[in-house]
């Protein structure tokens, strides 16, 4: 995962194979990065409006919040071993942090997305959690996340080749892109990975095995 830190004009990168999070200036002439966090099996990154950095550790099954300059961080989700309990995470992947510092986590092994309210000791299932499958109540390898200002959750549903939206309190999601089998058509994905929105409400999806980024207008 990669973040752009506009305040320092730098990239914050999850360097997973080296078990660290690093920052690289985008200014010309930069020859090396700066290690922000080490000894972490990182996967997902997020930053809140107070410039706290969040990172998921998919081996420890936890998410921590960091001030710049500290290496230990504060536990904000999981941390009770890998598992399927509400106080556990199992292979946490991507993160989204809202303005209230609530943390959303996609869990690869539990086939769910969890919301951990700030200060909570356990999470709330907000999507999936019904085992791997293609029903609208299920996910199959959830990855990239986004939550809009109305609290609607968007999930890159990797194995189902779709992006699915869950409104607050919903028991099932709605397919908003893909879901038409594996392929290279404009209405298809071949393993959607990450997603994001621009300020005009357009959805961008990294379509991994098609080696492309797709843009969708979402109503």
UniProtKB/TrEMBL annotation:
Ranges occupied by NHL repeats: 133-169, 182-219
Keywords: Glycoprotein, Repeat, Signal
GO terms for cellular component: extracellular region
CDD domains: NHL (cd05819)
PROSITE patterns on file: NHL
Domain of life: Eukaryota
InterPro entries assigned: 6-blade_b-propeller_TolB-like, NHL_repeat
Protein name per Swiss-Prot or TrEMBL: NHL repeat-containing protein
């Amino acid at each position: 995962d990669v973040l752009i830190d506009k305040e320092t004009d730098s990239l914050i990168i999850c360097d997973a194979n080296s078990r660290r999070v690093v920052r690289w200036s985008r200014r010309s002439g930069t020859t090396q990065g700066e290690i922000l966090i080490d000894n972490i099996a990182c996967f997902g990154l997020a930053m809140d409006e107070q410039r706290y950095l969040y990172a998921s550790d998919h081996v420890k099954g936890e998410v921590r919040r960091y001030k710049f300059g500290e290496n230990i961080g504060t536990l904000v989700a999981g941390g009770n071993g890998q598992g399927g309990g509400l106080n556990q995470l199992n292979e946490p992947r991507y993160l989204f942090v809202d303005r209230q510092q609530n943390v959303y986590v996609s869990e690869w092994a539990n086939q769910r997305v969890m919301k951990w309210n700030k200060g909570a000791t356990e999470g709330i299932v907000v999507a999936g959690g019904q085992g791997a499958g293609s029903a609208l109540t299920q996910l199959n390898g959830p990855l990239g996340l986004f939550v809009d200002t109305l609290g609607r959750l968007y999930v890159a549903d990797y194995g189902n080749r779709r992006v699915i939206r869950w409104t607050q309190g919903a028991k099932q999601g709605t397919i908003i892109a893909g879901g038409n089998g594996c392929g290279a058509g404009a209405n298809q994905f071949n393993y959607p990975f990450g997603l994001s929105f621009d300020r005009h409400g357009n959805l961008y999806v990294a379509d991994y095995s098609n080696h492309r980024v797709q843009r969708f207008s979402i109503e």
